[in-house]
Every structure is written in structure tokens, then in C-alpha cells.
Amino acid sequence: MVPNTPDRPVRFGRRLFLGLLGVGAVALIAGQKVRDLVGGFSMQPIVSAFTGGVTARGFRIYAAEGIPEWDRTTWRLRVDGLVANPRTFTFADVTQLPATAMTRDFECVTGWKVKNVAWKGVALRDLVQMAQPTPRARYVTFYSGDGVYFDSLTMEQAILPDVILAYDMFGEPLPPEQGQPLRLINPHMYGYKGPKWVYRVEFKDTQDVGYWQNYGYPIDAYIEGRRNPLLG
Amino acid sequence: MDTPSTPTSKGGATPSLANDRLPRFGLTERTLHWTHAVVFLVLVITGAAILFPFLAASIADRELVRAVHITAGFGLVLAPVAIALAGNRRAVRRDMADVDRWEEDDWLWIRGWSYYRYGRRMPPPQGLFNAGQKVNVVFTGATVLFFFVTGVIMWKWFYFPRWLVENAGGLHDVLSALAVAVWLGHVYMALLNPSTRESIRGMTVGWVRRAWAVEHHEKWVDELDRRASPHDLDRT
How far apart are CA A27 and CA A43, in angstroms? Predict the structure, then answer.
């Protein structure tokens, strides 16, 4: 390398440090592009190796309070609040409602995304039709079975045709860590706006500030770079 | 290579230590090292709990895990700075200067690295830190910086453009894998590898055996002998 003698040492330590800062800066600015160029390297194989393939599709599992147990026989979905027809559904009832299927990218705010996730479930607008919200009902809150997590949408956001309570994922029943039996999928927004293990949908005249909003997250989490469906 | 290359009449002329013991790291350096070690392990454990579903699923209080991870993340950057400033700054400066300074023997060391492990060849004489240790220090410093920057971007994602958050998340992942791999190598050298494990004594009790130091850090021993006085020992 650099010819030098003990009398004239090279200050290589700081050069190496600056060099690594340069490499890191390139990764920070152009990481995705570099990754695409070298063929989509990701940590996913490593993560999957440790997890027995639970996240083989690239999902990371976040749960505010662990994964709640699901008992098919006792579980009910409640649709209530400011509605003319409050309803309670068994899981069999839910799967017999008209189904909506779609394939959309799933994106998390912490930087990972899963492309082309196939979902199937009940469109919120179908539940709205059944429950008949009163004119005062302008917001919808979704409660998670973990007893802690919840989030909300405006009525306009909730009745978009591709906002669903999903019970199938990639053609299989939703696994426990993905929200078995029901999770809210709103493909226009980041994942935190879609509570898992949903057991109650409440129509309200004020908007509840959801779990992550208490940490400063925005209440409307439209995925950057996608068209806001409400602005046309 | 078994005998020091300089006369050792004054060897080990350290007043407070036995003749075969050489003072290696003072209180500041050791506090710095072990604080970093604890913070790093807390981050590895909490980070793994967030990343790996089989752990994440069994955690009852994810909010706490997240809070600990973020707090420790600040500790990763602030703790070493605070300790260095409050402690023996001269010792830290000396260490940094040694990491910075590369002599011909360092390049020779890098070139022959793979041989030393099998005892097929003795490494060229090294100073306070050998070339591998120097690379480790620089690597650690740079990764700490990027762990922090990418971590803050992921934590406060709503202040940053999406492309930056995605890149930060990816870089945070890659750094985690690299850091754990390097750490495993570090632990192997310090605890298991017979020829290098003497070194951990310098980081625990603060001294190493002279015979070992002559073999692994000959130029450092020479320097100690030349000065014939304890170097930069903490007075506190």
C-alpha cells in the first residue's frame, strides 16, 4: 500500500474512518438503488433463517402487547356506536359476507415493505351499509384484541372500496401474528393504521387519537409517493 | 521473538506493579470499554426482540423494549463521549493517536493476518494496538455513528422523506449483522483464542503479562521501557 517508514507514519486511521463514513453516506442516500443493482439483497433470508420462515414473505411482526389467543367459538365482531343497526358477527358470519380481494404493497414506517400482498376480507363499506351509521357518525375506531392497540379513520377514508377487514392473506387464513382472525388493511396508509386482531368497529362523532399518534405519529398516514385517494 | 528487542534493564520499571506486569488500560479506558459493551448488548437484545418475530411475539411489553432500545441508542453515542471528557483525556487521546498512526508493520500485519491464527508465522512487531484492533476501533466508531443516525431517522420517520427512511432501515439492518459478526470475533479473541486471550486482562484488571506483551505488542513494550515510567495511569 502506501510506502512509509516508522519515522513517517501514515495517518491511516482517520482516513479509514472517513472512508467508512463515505460508504455509509452512500448507503444512506442511495441504498435502495445500490440494492436493486446488486439484485435485491436484503436481510430477509437471515431473518427467516432465525424465525423458521414466519416472515418468509418479508413481514416483520410488531405487537404492542403480545399475540392474543383466538377462540373461534367465542369470538365476535361488534359493529356499534352511532349506528341504526348495531351488529354482532361470528367468524362464520364474517366469512359469509360479500368478500373483497385485492393485491397491494404493504409498507411500514420503519422502512420495510412487502410487495404484492394478496388480501381477502370484508370491505368496510359493506359493514357500513349493514350498520347504517347515523348522520353524526363521522369517524370509525378499530379496536385490537390485544386490549391496548386501536386506531381510527374518518368515514371518507374508511369507505374507500379497498379498505377491508382481512381474514385471508396470500390465500391462507390470517396467521395469529398477522392479526387472526381479522385485521384492518388500508392500502393507502402505513401499516400502523391497520390494527390487528380487530374485534370491534365503533362509529363516532369525534376521532380517536390512535396508539402511535401518542408517540407523535401523524393521524393520517398516507404512504408517501402514492396518490391520496380522497384528493382524486 | 521471545525476547524483547531492546535492552530490558529498565524493563517493568513500574513502581506499583510487579516486574512481569505492564499497565495497559487505565480506569477511563476500561470504563469506556465496558460501558460500551453493556449498552451494545442491551441494544442487541432489544433490537433482536423487535426484529425477530419468534421473540417479538412472546414479548408482553413491546413498548418497554422500544423505549429501552431508543434510550440505549442515545447512550451508545453519549456515554463514550461523556466518559472520555470526564476521565483521563490524555489516555484516550493516546489511544486515538495510536489507532490513527499506521506504520509499515501495520500493513505487514494486515497482509499476513490469516497466518497468525494457525501459528504458522509470527506477526510483525505491533504497537499499543495491532492493525486488526485499529480497524476494529475505527469500524466501531463509524458504525456507532450510523446506528445512531439511521436509528433517529427510523424513530422520527415522519420528519424525513420516505426514501431516506427506507435506506436508513436497510442500513440499520446491515450494520446490525456486521456489528454482531465483528463482536463475535472480538469475543473469540478475548476469551477463547489461546494466544490472544491474555489481552482481556488489560481490559479487566488493567495490566498484561510482560512476556505476552512482548510477543504481541513489542513496539508498545519498547516504548514503555524507553519512558521507563507508567504511562497515563489514572490517578483517581
Answer: 15
